[in-house]
Amino acid sequence: MLGVVHAQPAAAAVGDVHWFLSNDRGNLGPWDVYQHLRRPDGTFASRVRVTAQAGVVQGNNYSLSAVKLLGRMHLFMSADTLGCVTCPRNGALHYSMQNADGTWPAWTTILAQTGNIIPHVVAAAVGAELHVVVTGPPRGENTVTLLHSVRDFATGQWRPFQEFASFASHANSPRLMAAAGTSSGLLHVVVNGSPASGPERMLHTVRSPNGTWSTMANILGETGRPWTATDNPPYGPRKLVAAAVGSEIHLLYENFGVIFHTIRGTNGSWLPFGNMSTVTGLARNDLEKLSATALGLNGDLLVAGVHGPANDLRYTIRRANGSWDAWTSNPLAPTSIDDIGKLVVASG
Questions:
Q1: Domain range spanning residue 340?
Q2: What is the structure's pLDDT at 4?
Q3: What is the mean pLDDT of residues 304-323?
Q4: How far apart are alpha carbons 302 and 313 in whole angstroms?
Q5: CA-CA distance, 173 to 212, in Å (whole number)?
Q6: What angle do CA 337, 82, 48 make, to 5 degrees?
Q7: Per-residue pLDDT at 70 exceeds 80
Q8: Using CA atoms, how far apart are residues 66 and 13, in angstroms rounded to an integer?
Q9: What domain of life does the native source organism fall in (predicted)?
Q10: Is residue 2 a part of any domain in this protein?
Q11: Is residue 268 part of a domain?
Q12: If you average pLDDT over residues 279-300, what whole number do you get?
């Protein structure tokens, strides 16, 4: 079990950072999700079991995403619909919006894919809208697609998922995906894929308020490619996350414990990737399951991860002036990193 279970979850409040963790029980599940929060004063509330109210999810858990919007927490989980190793791999995207009193209603399935899993799910607050991006089913024999939807808050319904990008082969398909939204109505999506040959790509696109998408561009020409052929794995990041801090987009990736960070400025240019270990102190192979979120409205960024050697959760804060705090332990961390399948932090 992941820590102490309390019957009454905490409602979302201004300045809180909500941590969501799913356990790791292998192929058959069931999958639980736990929530706790970091208050603005830096203290932590007790952990609660979200799935005690929303329901336990069976099967493989592929992705977890969370967004705080208009005072409510929104949680997404993609999983198999069947808890069976040999059964058809039918993917489902589950969604729940936390009630004002802190309770969680039952999951609703907002996307189902017969015969195909949904390995990547990223959600973002874009102005006053809730957006979600997923990997869609193959189109034709090999083409992999990306799908996008927006929740209509007037009706509570999700608009039909629309394809906005495709990749000509599985070798080129996204291995990792991140998204962040701005208050001005822009949705930024970054995907990392390894082609069968040629240079690695980290592709960035922007959805404008009118619904149009910019052409995907490889940002590695600006940020540089810090990983090398001698890295393990040689093809780069294991985890990719993005967060909007004001009008800037922060992008982080983790490659076997080494975390790199870059910023897309208001002028649209990207800074070179910087190695966070040079400013935060943790060495290689120390962190897994990266996540990040803006911290309040003062320009700070909170970055969280699982600290392998100490078997606990850690976080650091990048201040608006560019300085980084030392890594701090989350006092509600579980006793074993084997219990953690996914980690997501969200605030607003």
A1: 17-347
A2: 38
A3: 82
A4: 13
A5: 22
A6: 40
A7: yes
A8: 15
A9: Bacteria
A10: no
A11: yes
A12: 76
**Segment among 169-178, 243-252, 310-319 with least mean pLDDT:** 169-178
Print burial letters for 303-314: b (CB count within 10 Å at least 16), e (below 16): bbbbbeeeebbb
At 133 the pLDDT is 97
Q: Which residues pair with 244 in a beta bridge?
A: 249
What letter does residue 196 receive in the DSSP assignment?
Answer: S
Residue 1 located in a structural domain? no
- pLDDT exceeds cutoff 80 at 188: yes
Q: Identify the pLDDT of residue 277.
A: 77
SS3 of the chain: helix, strand, coil, percent, to 5:
5, 45, 50
Q: How many CB atoms lie within 10 A of CB 324?
A: 17
51 DSSP assignment: H
Four-CA torsion 341, 119, 175, 121, nearest 10 degrees: -90
Residue 77: predicted pLDDT: 92
Q: What type of residue is 291? A: S
Q: What's the CA dihedral at 241, 246, 247, 249 to 10 degrees?
A: -10
* 245 within 8 A of 231, measured Cβ to Cβ: no
Is the alpha carbon torsion for 158, 181, 307, 317 positive or negative? negative
- Count of domains forming the chain: 1
Burial class of residue 347 (count of CB atoms within 10 Å of its CB; 0-12, 13-18, 19+)? buried
Instruction: Find, among 70, 117, 63, the residue nearest to 348 by Cα.
Output: 70
Higher-pLDDT residue of 5 and 99 is 99
8 CB-side CA count, 13 A: 3
Is residue 4 assigned to a domain?
A: no
Rounded alpha-carbon distances, angstroms, from residue 229 to 170, 225, 233: 21, 11, 8
Looking up residue 189, the CATH number of its domain turns out to be 2.120.10.80
